[in-house]
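[job 0412] stage=fold_complex status=start
inputs:
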Amino acid sequence: MSTIWFLLILLCLLMYVVLDGYDLGIGIATLVEPDASHRHEMLEQVAQAWDGNETWLVLLGVSLWAGFPTAFGTILPHAYLPVIVMLFALIVRGVSVELASQAPPAPRWERAFGIASLIAALAQGVAASTLIGAIGWFSALVAVTVGCGYLALGYAYAQWKTTGELRARAAHRGRVSTVLASIAAVACLLAAPPNLHTPARLIAFAGLLLFAVAGVVMSMITSPYDGLPLAGLVTAVVALVIALVVARYPLLASPDLTIAKTAAPSGTLTFLAVGIGLNVPLILFYNWFAHHAFRGKAPANHLANGRTGATQ
Amino acid sequence: MSLLDLSRWQFVITVMFHMTFPAITVGLSILLSILYGMYWRTRKAVYLQMFRFWRRIFAVGFAIGVVAGIVITFEMGLNWGGYAAKTGPIIGPIIGMEVVTAFFVEAGFIGVLLYGDGRVRHATMFASSVMVSIGTILSSTWIIAANSWMQTPAGFVVRDGRFEPTDWLDAIVNRSFVWRWPHMVLAVLISAAFFVAGIGAYYLVKARALPFARRSVSIALGVAAMLVPVQIFVGDHTAGAVLPYQLSKLEALEGNWTNGNTGFVLFAIPDQQAQRNLAELDIPCLGSAINKDLTCKTAVPGLDLTPKADRPDMAAVFWGFRVMFLAALLMFGTAFYATILRFRRKLWTSRRFHRFLLWTTPVGVLAILGGWATAETGRQPWVVFGQLRTADAVSHLAPGELVFSVVGFSLLYLVMLIAYVAYIIRTVRIGPEHVLGLAGGRAN
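[job 0412] stage=fold_complex status=done
writing structure:
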């Protein structure tokens, strides 16, 4: 039962990294976007979807709390500073994206949105590095990996959802970010090689890494399909995260917080499997709906299209 | 100040800040559903105008509420690691249900509610508004279930120092939940009503956008007139249902250090150290009368009935309760007077009343904050009443880390509060006159 619940937590992690990854990435990208109207268009893309994306982070945290209470109560105090900084950044981000979207033009809030997105991504990298007990330069390396990875996802999403100059720039910069993220990820793996003591684990890990590489390659192909880079990157991210989990299973956090040791009693896990497990298809539907309602390329003149802004 | 105090202050700051926003947005989300429904059926432009204007106020408040809520979820592990580890098997799943049945519902449909106008069909817009409203109500439901379990824990056993569920129905529908839930839902509806009435009154005072203003104020005061009396009844029963199990809370909120006072303490400056009031103002016999004894013989229980180690901090409980209680009386009086004006057909001509309404804009929110202060500080020194002390629930953090986060949250939340108030003022000044502009033509 605790293994099933662990898989649900893994699902939350993957959904979060992919979904909030792209919208944090778009936020970071606004920092280096010279054109003000493009910046606003990017921000609007995030404004429509960030809430649903970020809710996966809440479900990730709460699932860990409910299913593995001791782990939740131990990991978080250990990662106190990076998590607090991440929360600060997410607050600024949520407020600034709504203010910049509801009362444009708001260049200061747009800037705050970009900076907060960057800080949130870096802080998540540092927080993740504390799971294997490492801090210091390795944390910085993980932070850079996460930052570049999110940026690549953000550009891939922007390429998928926009047209014209913005789309072309996203395609180009997305490739550069993907290369940087890949280099950083390889550096992380070399700096802290996972302990693969059984052949089965080694094979699984290597196989998943191959998938990740294939995803990266797919994202770099020049093609008429604007969704291809995003599909490739999502494959890469999912494969990489699963590979890392496979390498460390059943350890939740170093040195000795394992699944078995920290699991909640069976009365709790049964309730979770029924109450929350049965809701998973529904929440996937809500997430799909949120994106489906605004499917396709964003209309070019965004402000005039059904928006409530003070633009009148 | 100890590290425990720092974590407690941080919790006070973050949770009070958070609560301010649902206190406005839960009710507003229901108002938005009704307004869009009215527009859909009648096609009257004024309803679309109201929908779009109130949506602008709602959107930013909702976003702040969401991100401030994420903070609280993580704080449970960050600052209250002992609490997280010990109560996780019971509180974790309840909050988990909140996430999947409320947060995801809100998040899935908020995008359409805020940005779909003119891009999706009327039915989709309306359904999305309703779904967001349902999400906000469900969210309140689960959070009250979790908090009520901490007030009147049930359906559990303690094994190896950890709370483990034995009966989920008992744990969720616990003794205080059944009254606190309607109490909370009524409270957020009423606070939104006064918020809407206050802002609407601004346009009455300025004689701007009158059809918009009158409809807004009329709906808001109508809701208040219906719900405030119900709330006073429910509030009284909430106290009646909770206090037998938490006598120390009752003792603290009444303001008596010793047993024997038959009066009602109207004003007091409690000194926790000396266990006495530095100043006190009583209404004789009213305490006895509230306990249904008009002969002035029934004493109000004093805090000396509770062992010293189990006494809550009286000042916070006493004043939290009085803020709520006085705000409730003010709201009752306002709603009552408004109803009289309405029947005498003077509601739209009484300029003095319009100006008065401006001042009542935040009164419902203040009442809710006061009520939460009573509930939470009155439970101390327990985090799970009678079972787990707050001191045993706190994480052992480095002082520097805590100072950083307390100062950070204080500054950040101050800036956010100012930004939101400034945004509301700006939005109100711009007014509802233009929201139908360009966008209106696109609504299909």
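[job 0412] summary: Chain B touches chain A through 88 residues (CB under 8 Å).
[job 0412] exit 0
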